[in-house]
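Fold Annotation — chain and its backbone
Next Lines — sequence and tokenised fold

***
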Amino acid sequence: MDARTAVGDAAVVQAVFDDTIALHQRMREVVQDSVIEAASAIRASLDAGGKLLVFGNGGSAADAQHLAAEMVGRFEREREGLPAIALTADASIVTSVANDFTFDWVFARQVEALGKREDVALGISTSGRSPNVLMALEAANAKGMKTIALTGRDGGVIGKAAGIHINVSHPSTARVQEVHRTVIHAICALVERAR
């Protein structure tokens, strides 16, 4: 690698960090109240014997599994496992529903099958427009479940479909996902603090 390439690469790395830090700083106060409200809803659900159903596509699917893993395993301290299911994790269910119905149904069908009134459904969508996330939130609303949307851009129809909306308003999917992971960690810290 020549010196010019190294300088260019370093500038890219610096720009990514600078953009990420700036967005985190901007969003910290903007989302604070909705993050606290989301964690409170999850705590109330768990206290009532409910569970967390979480879902999203692509990187948001990974974030859904990350959140469920932190709940079932642990976040930062030893405590009992907390009931959470990532609706993205069962390949047989996802592919059978997508095959037999359409991909739009992969999460809604699981909410219909697994969701109870005392549960929380948390949908993640960086675009705010994922049809399968929207359908799952609508299915959860029909069951009387608490619903949370973690979105990007302007929040779209998904933000409007949820009882609690945490919106990271930014056009870059990568930057939104970075803040989503911090939001997930903040929710985990608040839920775990109460256990």
Q: What stands out?
A: The chain is about 60% helix and 15% strand. Residues 29-193 form a domain with the Rossmann fold fold (CATH 3.40.50.10490). The chain has one domain: 29-193. Residues 12 and 146 are 41 Å apart (CA to CA).
